[in-house]
Inverse folding.
């Protein structure tokens, strides 16, 4: 990796929940690490491929970067690589980046977490406690598989509710969405299907998209997507992007050399402009504002939301 790369050393590894390890990373010289925006992730070079993991610790001049990683048995190997780390190992990463920051103007924050998606929520909770922000938490996880449950209890107190079943969670979610005061923003992180459910419930309850923020994890499990056509306006060439082929692969297929590193939607290297059409953003790099502007796309993971897209290449 290049650019904003930092070198870190593993200080400790802990089993923090079933199949979840928390890895504490420090600077080789023990100096404080760069501060980060709550909800940020660290892009880690996992032995040749890059994965993004949310930071769960303190965000201001932290002594360590802590990440909690669920072992994904049939994943691409990134989580297994992290689970193989031991104290003293060296790790390369990019400086923390946020695509899931708390909105400063929000009067209240409703944090919704599913499974290991609790990790950025823990970071948001630390910030909320630090700044005295008004928060509410709904956290759903399989019994015996809850990570950071004690942290959430300690940081949120009575403002946190825990669920072991989807039905009970969904019922409560609909009630909570309906009773939020104006000025509340919703943040949801978890498996894709759970995020889709929360977004749908928020839309049905009349929430504007600008007040609902989501972060998907498990990019390994991205669906193949719908086919679409991209027009390269510089040459007037049309390129078909079939289901299961990324836009980046399709562009490479016609001889375009798009810089890229992670091919996971986390490093930002492959960003290209969009001149017409609506992108279906699936990356962890662009901010909410950048995604809403619809003038850029990360072609390694994102696609068109519709039959066509135009890029000035
Ligand atoms: S190659 Fe890293 S975001 Fe696309």
């Amino acid at each position: 990796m290049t650019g904003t790369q930092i070198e870190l050393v593993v200080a400790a590894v802990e089993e923090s929940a079933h199949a979840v390890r928390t890895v504490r990373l420090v600077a080789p010289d023990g100096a404080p690490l760069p501060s980060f925006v709550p909800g940020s992730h660290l892009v880690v070079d996992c032995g040749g491929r890059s994965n993004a993991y949310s930071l769960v610790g303190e965000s201001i001049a932290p002594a360590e970067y802590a990440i909690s990683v669920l072992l994904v048995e049939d994943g691409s190997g990134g989580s297994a690589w992290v689970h193989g780390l031991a104290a003293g190992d060296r790790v390369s990463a990019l400086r923390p980046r946020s695509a899931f920051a708390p909105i400063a103007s929000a009067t209240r924050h409703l944090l919704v977490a599913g499974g290991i998606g609790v990790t950025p929520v823990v970071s948001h909770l630390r910030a909320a406690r630090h700044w005295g922000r008004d928060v509410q938490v709904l956290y759903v996880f399989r019994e015996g598989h809850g990570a950071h449950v004690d942290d959430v209890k300690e940081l949120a107190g009575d403002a946190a509710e825990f669920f072991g079943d989807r039905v009970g969670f969904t019922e409560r979610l609909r009630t909570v969405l309906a009773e939020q005061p104006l000025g509340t923003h919703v943040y949801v992180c978890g498996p894709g299907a759970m995020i889709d459910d929360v977004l749908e419930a928020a839309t049905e309850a009349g929430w504007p998209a600008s007040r609902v923020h989501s972060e998907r994890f498990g990019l390994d499990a991205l669906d193949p997507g719908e086919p679409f056509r991209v027009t390269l306006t510089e040459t007037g060439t049309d390129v078909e992007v079939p289901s299961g082929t990324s836009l980046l692969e399709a562009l490479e297929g016609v001889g375009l050399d798009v810089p890229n590193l992670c091919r996971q939607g986390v490093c930002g290297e492959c960003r290209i402009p969009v001149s017409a059409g609506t992108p279906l953003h699936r990356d962890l790099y662009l901010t909410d504002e950048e995604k809403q502007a619809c003038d850029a796309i990360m072609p390694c993971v994102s696609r068109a939301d519709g039959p066509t897209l135009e890029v000035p290449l």
